[in-house]
Amino acid sequence: MSMQLRRGSATGKALFLAALLTVAVPGAAYARTADVTVVTPGPTMGPPTPFTGVTSHADCPDGLVSGGGADQAIGSDEMSNGNHVMGMAPSADGATEYTDTPGIVGTDASHWMAFGGSGSRSSDAFSTTPYAICLHSNLIRHTQVVMNKAQGPTSGLSSRLVTATCPAGTVLIGGGARTTPASVGSLKPIASFPTFADAEHHFGSIAAGDGEHDPDSWTAVGGIGGGRGADNMTYAYAICGTDDIVLKHVSTTVHFTEVIGPDTASTGQTATTGCSREDGQLVSGGAAISGGNVTTTDFSKATSGGPHLNGSFPSDAAGTPAGGVGADPSYWTAATHSGGSPSQGSYSDVWALCLDVRHGHKR
Fold first, then answer.
1. What does the alpha-carbon distance between residue 151 and residue 290 come to, in Å, rounded to a whole number?
2. What's the confidence (pLDDT) of residue 7?
């Protein structure tokens, strides 16, 4: 370092001290950043026939995907009962699913896949819109995807819960859920939410509550109506940072809202929650249609077979889906639907996962 300073100059002394501090405290001037943008290509039409599915994807061209969602267009007539979310999951290339051996199944995923399905009815109005949350951070430079899966639900009016957990020493930044096959029309994911692999949360059966910090797992719940299928599968995905992150510099906060309904046939409901400025950036979100009290008791399915998700997506405070490339939302919305039968005692649940790399806290 060469620096000419004039003796007795206050400015020179200040510059000299600043230079010493920069050398003596490596990284003192290093600013930890985390910015997100939303990418969506718009709707993919379909599925056009009963008991089929449609796939769409959104891509992060210069960042890592931290989470994502889907929004179904269902039309306004009774055919709307047949359309539902079938999955929301990270992907390596926008076409390939992580469905093989559970565990760490991928690194640095930059694509998000959304799946829509039809029951016994279909309509030309059906479509699926994917949303990718793209993370740009000089602290979280790499991610890994953890997948877990379980067979089921296989019989009518039942559900199957499965949880994926991030490796020790890493941070959860998002997650997703998926059910297969599309040919079983009443099979669908009815919940996708952050949680903890600890006794207090019954190792993923109880969801993270409003204001809780640093969840380490993501749970998916598959639900089924009157159908059956021996090959039915439910998948959970956790998107995690890698173990090179200094965790004291990172904190995540969960926000959660639960509202009553929908409980009458052929109706929908929405619920919205979001991140405050103090929480940092919205990096992911979750949604469920449930029997209620999901943050205090084990997840329970709504009583009838028809309730399903029509959306889980980044939005504004009013629940309007985020716009095109460059949108920077602070809210997440769940869109739910009762199906063709009354569903007394149904609740709509929504989670926002917020990431702060500016302050962090001790874990």
1. 20
2. 30
CA 56 → CA 74, 193, 321, distances in Å? 16, 21, 17
Q: Phi and psi (nearest 5°) for 167?
A: -60, 150
Contact predicate 255/210, CB 8 Å: yes
Q: What are the extents of the domains in the chain? A: 37-356
Alpha helices in the chain (DSSP H): 10-24
Angle among Cα 312, 313, 319 to the nearest 5 degrees reads 100
Peptide bond before residue 181 is cis, with ω within 30 degrees of 0: yes
Q: Which residue has the tokens 């439910």?
A: 234
Per the CATH hierarchy, to which homologous superfamily does domain 37-356 belong? Proprotein convertase subtilisin/kexin type 9 (2.60.120.690)
CB 265 within 8 A of CB 341: yes
The tokens for 296 are 């205090």
Of 239, 222, 316, 184, give the one whose Cα is nearest residue 63: 239
pTM of this structure: 0.90
Backbone angles phi, psi at 336, to 5 degrees: -120, 165
What value, to the nearest 5°, has the Cα angle with vertex 128 and ends 343 and 165? 75
Each residue's pLDDT tens digit, 293-345:
999 999 999 888 889 999 999 999 999 998 755 567 899 999 999 998 888 89
Distance CA 51, CA 301 (A): 22
Burial of 344 (0-12, 13-18, 19+ CB in 10 A): exposed
